[in-house]
Amino acid sequence: MAPYQIITDATVDLSAGMIKEVPNIKIIPMEVEIGGKNYSYGPNGDISAEEFYRLQRKGNYAKTSQINPTVYFEIFEPYLKNGTDILYLCFSSGLSGMFQSASLCVEMLRYEYPERKIICIDTLCASVGEGLLVFEAMRKQEEGLSLEELTKWIMDNCLKSCHWFTVDTFEHLKYGGRVSSAAAAIGSALSIKPLLSVDEKGLLQVKEKPRGRRKAIQIMVGKMEEGWQPEISKTVIVGHGNNPEAAELLRQAVATRFEEAEIYIADIGPVIGAHTGPDMLALVYWGNNR
């Protein structure tokens, strides 16, 4: 059986501790523009999540770029030349055109390397929800699953990665066209912390409009109570946009209610943070209520 390499992109938002547990993961950096300057985020990048949110808090809005097919080619081809098959786990097609770009590159490489296997999967996941899926996939690979076995497991389980997010302000959602100016103004006036999820089509949807962060945390934990399936995995990820204090509040709430949960805290990186802004809070877990 030929070895295979799992590759993903910088939207994955794995914590440093999680990456240490699965050091063989390959993460493709991504581009972000903020304050009139272009940066690379990811391995060997030139901006950290902390610096990105510092710039956002100064009033800067950010833009992101999807990965160019040429970059995919440069990343994928060396593995194929060395006789290694590839499993690429891509950011949701509901939120980006990256899956289409990656698929075009894969088709060209399959023609050039017909003896190799290249599988490109639309995870329909984002940020720490994508991280949850990729982290478990890496664990399954270490357990000895073949490329075909792991592909089937991912396709069977990707929609069980349940994403729940709350944002502190409507401004970045408005800037990115996710909500109207009127809705943003009303939400801000009422101190609404919109609760969003990534649905089964990989699209971001506003599900509830709680007033205040503590209420939003209460609802997120309630969602986990409704749908958690620890038999898939007990891994739970709390994500935050440069607000470790809020992340700790959410972690404590989860730990109190779910003693067996294995909770990781991870930064929400600039690629996602460009659209959600600082102080975003996320809870992702394996469940049946996506």
**How much beta, percentage-wise?**
15-25%
Total number of beta strands = 13
Specify Rg, calculated over alpha carbons. Answer: 19 Å
Largest sheet features: 6 strands, mixed
Keywords:
290 residues, alpha/beta, 4-stranded parallel beta sheet
Itemize the secondary structure elements and their pairings.
Elements: E1 4-9, H1 16-21, E2 26-28, E3 30-34, E4 37-41, H2 49-57, E5 62-65, H3 69-81, E6 85-90, H4 98-112, E7 118-122, H5 127-142, H6 147-157, E8 161-166, H7 171-175, H8 181-189, E9 195-198, E10 204-208, H9 213-227, E11 235-240, H10 244-257, E12 262-267, H11 270-276, E13 281-286
Parallel strand pairs: 1-2, 1-6, 6-7, 11-12
Antiparallel strand pairs: 3-4, 3-5, 8-9, 8-13, 9-10, 11-13
Helix pairs in contact: 3-4, 5-6, 9-10
Protein architecture, described:
Helix 3 (69-81) runs parallel beside helix 4 and helix 5 runs antiparallel to helix 6. The strands form 3 sheets. A 6-stranded mixed beta sheet has the order 10-9-8-13-11-12, with helices on both faces. The two termini are 35 Å apart. Helix 1 links the parallel strand 1 and strand 2 (26-28). It has helices spanning 16-21, 49-57, 69-81, 98-112, 127-142, 147-157, 171-175, 181-189, 213-227, 244-257, 270-276, and strands at residues 4-9, 26-28, 30-34, 37-41, 62-65, 85-90, 118-122, 161-166, 195-198, 204-208, 235-240, 262-267, 281-286. The protein has 290 residues and is α/β, with parallel strands linked by helices.
